Amino acid sequence: MTSLSTASSLSYASYFTTIKKRFATQNTNDGNDNDNDNSVIASKEFSHLENPIADDAENFLLLMDSRPGSLLTTFKTMSINNDDDDNDDTTTHNDDDDEDYRETPSLEKYNVDWTGHYRGSSSIVVRPKSTKEVSRILSYCHKRRIGVVPQGGNTGLVGGSVGIGGEVILSLEKMNNFECYDKKDGSIIRADAGCILEDLQNYAAKNGNLVPVDLGAKGSCQIGGNVSTNAGGVYYYRYGSLHANVLGLEVVTPTGDVLNLGYDPVSHLKDNTGYHLKHLFIGGEGTLGVVTKVSLQCPPLPVSRGAMWLTCTSLSDVVRVLTLARTDHLNEILAAFEFMDRDVLELVRAAYPSIRFPLDIGNVTPATTINNDNIIDPYSILIETHGSDNNHDREKLESFFESIMEEGLVVDGVMAQNLGQIEDFWKIRELCNPATAATGKCNDRTMTESFEIDIISIHLTLSF
Ligand SMILES: Cc1cc2nc3c(=O)[nH]c(=O)nc-3n(C[C@H](O)[C@H](O)[C@H](O)COP(=O)(O)OP(=O)(O)OC[C@H]3O[C@@H](n4cnc5c(N)ncnc54)[C@H](O)[C@@H]3O)c2cc1C
User: Fold this and answer.
1) Are residues 325 and 421 both part of a single domain?
2) Residues 41-58: tens digit of each pLDDT
3) Is residue 281 located within the same domain as residue 346?
């Protein structure tokens, strides 16, 4: 497990797993029965997978109708046109001999994950624009025994989105159309997997709705990546997990088959019929296939929002505060409960010296270098409420604060007076991950294992 010192959120406790997975496109049966136990195989070498070569790059291009920008590669390819106007991090250039060879010298953006720690060695990035193209690519890789790593916004933090064995990266970034299923209230969004979460949030907000998942990486992560990691996000307490909010998915299996799992037509909000195979892909991290489309229910935007910043001295006090918030006091209006330890807030302070904490008394230098009075309290909590009546919610927050103070559970606290202050609280929370990455603390993690899954037998199960 991780030795990472970071924001310890009760609502997303499990995503710092250190397991590195690969998305193998072939059955693992190499003739040895012991190898073929239809289960996760840890630390196995991937010698049965082929490394992609320049010919494969050419073929990928053809599979995507030689569309400009559909292929990025470090191989020299006879591409018809590899130009891409929005490809700013990678460059394409003509070969000297004036033929139409193109190559992309750097695939840095795709080979290095958000933390900067996990580095892949892929020489081909395919960027399909449709489900059909995804299907063609996976079918081709399956026949050629080439490994594939699906990639969304590359913000996963655990290295799952980069190809450490030189696999082909299948980036979903070109699949980014979305629409409202019910135009009247916009409460169901149907989106391609490559849509950026924040774009969907803004769109839903214009229609008076809220995308029920929110996280610090919203400006880069994609809805397909969110589904594939079963991203918990900060509003988990109020709206539940993506298992509760995804109505349907379209996925492509490693053999290239397209499965419609309640995507079209969109499953009803209350659908208690039969099996719901979509749940296998929510949190599947690309091991079972590529998510290409998502339909998502979006609750109404809250009419009133409140927030409070508290500090505690012990973890057991934090847990007690959470229990009281969830049960006796805030109950149905509790939307978010995030806690941050002193270590991570010190990292934030060090990386962003101008940041002001809600309970700061003046400009405090890093806590370790000064006396006790100025040390950040061991645990800080950010609570957000969503409701429909400002006065009512405010009264609830005040009475909650009084009782936790009376019980001696918190040292101090402050309530946001307006939306701007709520955003300021969140800004601190959202800086925890960048601060951790900036100070290199992410690198404390070690990648322990690779594993692969016998997708053929899973596929057979899915198509019974
Ligand atoms: C600042 C910051 C804050 C964060 N906060 C949270 C948080 O609050 N809660 C939380 O849960 N996570 C959080 N994360 C982690 C991360 O943002 C989420 O896991 C996010 O859902 C990943 O989405 P992505 O599009 O970047 O996926 P990627 O990182 O690109 O991929 C993640 C995994 O999903 C697979 N994958 C991606 N797209 C697809 C697809 N279409 N089909 C199949 N497989 C696919 C990849 O192969 C990889 O295994 C945070 C990250 C950062 C940087």
Assistant:
1) yes
2) 333 455 678 889 999 999
3) no
